Amino acid sequence: MRKIILILFVLVPILGISQTIEIPTYTNVIKANGGYFVSGIIIDGDTFPHIKLYKVVIFPERKFTSSRQKKKYDKLTFNVKKVYPYAVIIGDYYRDIERDLAYIPDRKEQKKYVKSKEKELRNEYEETLINLTITQGRLLIKLVDRQTDHTTYEVIEEFKGEMNAFFWQSIAILFGSNLKDDYDTEEDQMIEEIIAKIENGQI
């Protein structure tokens, strides 16, 4: 499972309202005494703080029928918080690599580029990722699909070839995993709820 995880890496405004209609212009950041740096917006000669607000999702209080059920939810929360940042990183790298490869027509140079990105990611994250549990590894496989719209198998196949994808899929199956696992928002509703809370800074 450790090697499976490593191979994955080849891969919100408050607007000031004026009495006159005017196209707003932006200042550099402003600072209130003892406060925070924020963007500024000038409307009709007056300067207002301009803060981007993120969508906040409110969930009903989750009720558990047993302590065992709560313990299971808490464990899932822990695991999602652990691996979600890596899934985001994988998604970012996937899009960057796809974009960059479009400007590298030579197949040999493409392989060289992918190898360099793989080395870069190994140097940065290998030590942390080899300590993920099998459960966390399976969760990461699902979240890769969420972040890239491609299963882990498809990501490996795209960048490393069909034979590599088949090989790693064989290893994954030996550990009770499946690189072709996809992410379903309805089926994985509990995971999606936890991710929304993470992104909202609620947990």
Compact summary:
With 203 residues, the chain is mainly alpha-helical. The chain has 7 helices and 3 strands; from the N terminus they run αβββαααααα.
Write the layout of secondary structure elements.
Elements (H helix, E strand, L loop, with lengths): L1 H6 L17 E7 L5 E7 L2 E5 L16 H35 L5 H23 L4 H15 L3 H9 L1 H13 L14 H11 L4
Antiparallel strand pairs: 1-2, 2-3
- Spatial strand sequence of the major β-sheet: 1-2-3
Binned, the helix content reads 55-70%
Q: Characterize the largest beta sheet: strand count, sense, and whether it forms a barrel.
A: 3 strands, antiparallel
Distance N to C terminus: 28 Å
Number of domains: 1
Radius of gyration from the alpha-carbon trace, in angstroms: 22 Å
- Shape, please? flat
Low-confidence stretches: 1-5, 10-31
Q: Averaged pLDDT, please?
A: 78
Polypeptide structure, described:
The chain is mainly α. The protein has one domain. Helices cover 55% and strands 9% of the residues. It has seven helices and three strands, in the order H-E-E-E-H-H-H-H-H-H. The chain has helices spanning 2-7, 67-101, 107-129, 134-148, 152-160, 162-174, 189-199; strands spanning 25-31, 37-43, 46-50. A three-stranded antiparallel beta sheet has the order 1-2-3, with no helix packed on it. Strand 2 and strand 3 (46-50) form a beta hairpin. Helix 2 (67-101) packs across helix 7 and helix 5 runs antiparallel to helix 6 (162-174).
